[in-house]
């Protein structure tokens, strides 16, 4: 269970403080496919970054299972991001001089998984997301946008996280490929993984179990 209570994130600027997330509270049961929608600047990506332990709130709490991650140390947050959360980004964030297979293996290398185990799991994951055979040895520039996002999803699963956070994962894809990627993310729920997707596309959000709508940092629906 993910529980967010009275969450606020304020950024300071030269003009005046900007409240990106404003007193937000909600909960998401394990094994749920959830989406966060809203216009540009509504606070969606900031909220996702807070859930992923990439940033710390100004006030309020985020509890994941038994851990209050909003008050964890930097070391504990590194462990949280490494073992509990997988990230998928709009621009894929793949290493350009590494193959699809090597990109997928990378998180396991940081987790000190033996090389043969890394190779076997990366191959299995790429097969699972529909990138098979010779394509696994191609660098990102030799793959289509949809194929690159499949690699990114496989990489996010490498360390068997309980939570997948996807920030506009279909933003750089055509609508048909975007629907395929959303269906692929949805299929992960069968393993009990919680998936949270940030999107501006309500038709994609309607495929999820729960939709949270933000406006000016506040949860309005």
| Structural shape | globular
The H-level CATH homologous superfamily of the largest domain, spelled out, is P-loop containing nucleotide triphosphate hydrolases
The total number of structural domains is 2
| Number of alpha- plus pi-helical segments | 7
CA gyration radius, whole angstroms: 17 Å
Can you summarize the main beta sheet? 6 strands, mixed
Describe the structure.
The mean pLDDT is 89. 42% of the residues are buried. The chain has helices at residues 44-51, 74-83, 100-110, 115-128, 145-156, 175-187, 202-205, and strands spanning 2-11, 18-28, 33-37, 59-64, 67-68, 85-89, 163-167, 194-199, 210-215, 218-219. It has 7 helices and 10 strands. The radius of gyration is 17 Å and the shape is globular. The chain is of the alpha/beta class. The longest helix is centred in the middle third of the chain and has 14 residues, at 115-128. 33% of the residues lie in helices and 26% in strands.
Write a short abstract of this structure.
This protein is α/β, with parallel strands linked by helices. It contains 7 helices and 10 strands.
Note the topology:
Elements: E1 2-11, E2 18-28, E3 33-37, H1 44-51, E4 59-64, E5 67-68, H2 74-83, E6 85-89, H3 100-110, H4 115-128, H5 145-156, E7 163-167, H6 175-187, E8 194-199, H7 202-205, E9 210-215, E10 218-219
Parallel strand pairs: 3-8, 3-9, 6-7, 7-8
Antiparallel strand pairs: 1-2, 1-4, 4-5, 9-10
């Amino acid at each position: 269970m993910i529980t967010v209570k009275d969450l606020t994130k304020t950024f300071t600027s030269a003009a005046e403080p900007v409240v990106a997330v404003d007193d937000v509270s909600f909960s998401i049961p394990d094994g749920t496919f959830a989406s966060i929608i809203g216009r540009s600047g509504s606070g969606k990506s900031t909220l996702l970054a807070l859930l992923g332990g990439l940033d710390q709130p100004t006030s309020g709490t985020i509890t994941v299972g038994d851990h209050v991650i909003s008050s964890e140390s930097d070391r504990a947050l590194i462990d949280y991001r490494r073992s509990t959360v997988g990230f998928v980004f709009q621009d894929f964030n793949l290493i350009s001089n590494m193959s699809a297979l090597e990109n997928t293996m990378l998180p396991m290398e940081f987790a000190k998984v033996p090389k043969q185990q890394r190779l076997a799991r990366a191959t299995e994951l790429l097969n699972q997301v529909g990138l098979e055979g010779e394509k696994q040895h191609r660098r990102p520039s030799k793959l289509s946008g949809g194929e690159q996002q499949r690699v990114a999803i496989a990489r996010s699963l490498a360390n068997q996280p309980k939570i997948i956070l996807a920030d506009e994962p279909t933003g750089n894809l055509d609508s048909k490929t975007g629907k395929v990627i959303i269906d692929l993310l949805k299929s992960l729920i069968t393993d009990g993984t919680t998936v949270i997707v940030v999107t501006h596309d309500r038709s994609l959000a309607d495929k999820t179990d729960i939709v949270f709508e933000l406006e000016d940092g506040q949860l309005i629906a």
